[in-house]
User: Fold these one by one.
Assistant:
Number 1:
Amino acid sequence: MDFKKTNAPTNTVTRDLVDFVKDTNNIYESVAIMGKRANQISAEMKDELKSKLEEFSSTTDNLEEMFENREQIEISRYYERLPKPTLIAAQEFEEGKIYFRNPAKEKENL
């Protein structure tokens, strides 16, 4: 999933709870699904940011180098401006882009 191309809002949006219940018929299950997806997105973002910032790491840190490294600051600012993982997960859930299943419900249906 490319979280950079998401159309999720960058700030808090009031949402209708009925939109979250339509697939699961349970608001708590929907929140758990979105929470797990938000954790996945957060881990992806963290890994990508860490790999980009490792390019700038050095064995010796000078005070001058810390202030001169504008590229590192720009990368950090870019990631700070991205939508939060919870907002991305909620947007994906509303659009039906999250695959989920409940094994307990599958056993009941058999």
Note: Helices lie at 17-21, 27-54, 63-68, 70-81, 85-95, 103-109.
Number 2:
Amino acid sequence: MTKVITYGTYDLLHFGHIRLLERAKALGDYLIVGVTSDTFDRERGKINVQQSLMERVEAVRATGLADEIIIEEYEGQKIDDIKRLDVDIFTVGSDWRGKFDYLNAYCRVVYLDRTDGVSSTEIRSEQQPVRLGLVGESPILNKIERESRCVNGLEAGNVYSINNKYLSPELQQADRQAPSYDALLQSSDAVYIISAPECHYDQIKQALTAGKHVLCESPIALDPQQWHELKALAKERNVVLMDAVKTAFSMAYYRLRLLAKSGIVGDIVSVDATCTSLVDFDPTQDANRSLYEWNSICAWGPTALLPIYQLLGTEYVHKEIITRFSGKSQSYDAFTKISFVFPHAVASMKVGQGVKSEGELVVSGTKGYIYVPAPWWKTEYFEVRYENPQNNKRYFYQLDGEGLRYELLSFFKAIRTGHDFSYVDDNISLAITQTIADFYSRRDMTII
């Protein structure tokens, strides 16, 4: 029996895929089809895949051409599969000609001509692009504009800002500047918002009312009632409202969370997260700066709270907020520490834009702990450590676009499919909003 193996993503399965599978099957008696996993696709830079792994597997299965379907999960797996499955022929499309010649050492390699004019990329490109308006006063807008180019079907459009000094020369061009927020909404299908948190509620409500999808830097509101109102409005208008916390979409952080929840360090007893930076801010010099400056709790709070709420849940029994305000300002905190007590664990977060500390994340458990070095919120590496150092294990994951790229991809997929692809669940989003609301109401707070 001659065994043939081929690999692919098989996103939006089309006639070209089927024709290639038919010709692959004709090369032998038994066809094995490797479908690339979501994470491996991301590692290879294919981030615009619109269907989940299981949807793609089922589409291949439905053709009736595959005798066996396997999942491709890592670089170098092809050699392992060929040897393990006793494969005689490896085949792939001719656009990869020469790329897999090294496999001739293990089996026969055949390149098949592809069907002209048919590809998943072309199918996706034929769809009307989603025009993304940019709102706010932050250099992150430049990154959003850049990373949006990596998401096929998403197009960064105009920008509305009350202070464009942070914008790149490209975004500062006159033809990219919207004269008003209303004008921006009229020229956009969706908006990304990173304006001052005090502006979020009104801007989100206006966008949702106009039928626009919204991706907003967390917190999306400063009051839980406003949060509920915005979520209800998004549901009523059948549009997407998603929190933007880029760390949630980082591959390393996502894998860390899965490992921690799986019990790799035993029962989680403590989570400690620190996020700090030093920024030049003097509220006594320019009162207007408060219109577009983020204080420490809003700038870093959602990121620092993320692992606490995602690993321990949101049902804490006690919390204490300790804050140091900057100068005479009673809204701009130079430093804030929040301690939590959960039924079976404790947690702490430290954030500051006027205090510097080691920006690390430590998840402590009954069997060991997970250590993420600074800056943990955009790390490519973490380590699981045990009592015996010989058992320690390091994990490395490529970080593309600081998580922003996959955040935009998830937002885009939610728009296209109507399904929720956010890595920040609503209960987490609401808990972040409630915690920041407690800060502003001085609940459970000690001022130092």
Note: Confidence is low (pLDDT under 50) at residues 281-291.
